[in-house]
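Troubleshooting log. The previous structure file for this entry was overwritten by mistake, so regenerating from the original sequence record. Sequence copied from the archived sheet and checked twice against the printout by T.R.
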Amino acid sequence: MPIRLKAVSSLAVAFAVFGATAAPQAALALAPAATRSGPPANALPYDARRGVFSFAPDLEGSLPAVVQVTTLGQSRGPSSDAADPKPYASGSGVIVDAAQGILITNNHVVEGGRKFTIDLTDGRLFNATLIGADKATDIAVLKITPDGRPLNLKQVQTVDSDTLRTGDLAFAVGYPLGLDQTLTMGVVSGLNRSGLGDAVEDYIQTDAAVNSGNSGGPLLDSRGRLIGINTSILSGGMGGGNDGIAFAVPTRIMLYVADQIRKYGEVKRGETGAVFGSLSAKRARELGLGIVRGAVVADVAPGSPAERAGLRLDDVITRIQGRPVANAGAINATVGIAAPGSTLDLIYLRDGRERTTALAVETPQTQPIILGASAAIAYGATLRDQDGAVQLTAVEAGSPAAQAGLTAGDLITAVDGRTTTDAAAVVAALRAGTGAVDLTVMRNGEPQKLTLQPPSAF
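Regenerated output below.
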């Protein structure tokens, strides 16, 4: 787990001040003026019998659903025994379906494992099977294997993470640093965090103490409801300890991914054909914009949903599905949990003017040749019209185009002896070919003869 955290909550200070003599009325006095006229439900949780403030009544029902996950695999070394897998990773998990024995953890907790064991809070130990995992979101789904004993499992209640607000209390539960089940408290420090390296990121940031071993455990709200899965931390020190910055996959993403894994064993994702970059202050100045939050369209694939939606290079997306876009990660997170066949509403800026469009999410294309409005993709090469010629703007490594010796910057002037002046003509000639195709290209002002062999011609 990426790691680290620390913080003294303002509520902890309040508890220290009021703890010795406080009554529910004192707790109510801590509430904002706008809420003080409300019922005592607005007060901090107060246990009158013990005379203490406590969140225990709301949290205790969720704690039995938090488990320790141990991953076993083949040990390394000359004495390793493939038939006797050894523990090599440990983390946490949370039961979301008690009837079926389904629990959620992190992909990096179970990755490479051959066997998995689950420790419950009542001391029982069960084996589990891996239903599936998704590396892009670091989510994995396990199923506890019945062994004749009554399971009698508890599950956590889940809440929509879109209802969260910065400043909400948050509780991390797990098995850190070899300890037994541990509960820590903090606040939601930020929302929609991305740019940490994964493919689909829209993290909840919290300062609840999270350390190695917390991976896969739940982040709960003050009522004990699941709002996210603790996944990583930022650590500024050499030891990788808690510095007060931890990240959790929100339930908005977790629920979609877990449902896909339970249905198909994997996540079926669509694509839009657009590549996005985060809007920086420098890029905003170049585009003449007075904002620094948004996602810039960096590329649009020919014939793609993005091209059909009218998106162009340098368009700046500011909202998607009604949600503000802070950076490219916000777009990738939304597209990453959009089922093929769905449509996403976009608001974007072009030349400083606001526009709207609907962006379709489609099943990834497998055709080797796709023709767009002014460009095409053919056997791994991206072709664009360029002053009466056809220029290769990108060539995918290992593709038939790359194996033919084509490189970005080449100008295709003829296919099988037929002159080509635009991408549409190149596509038509390639589609008409029944085997290897002879290409004439201009490279650094010199003509080159190359042979392109489509996959079926190998």
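Residues 27 and 43 are 5 Å apart (CA to CA). Archived copy saved in two places this time.
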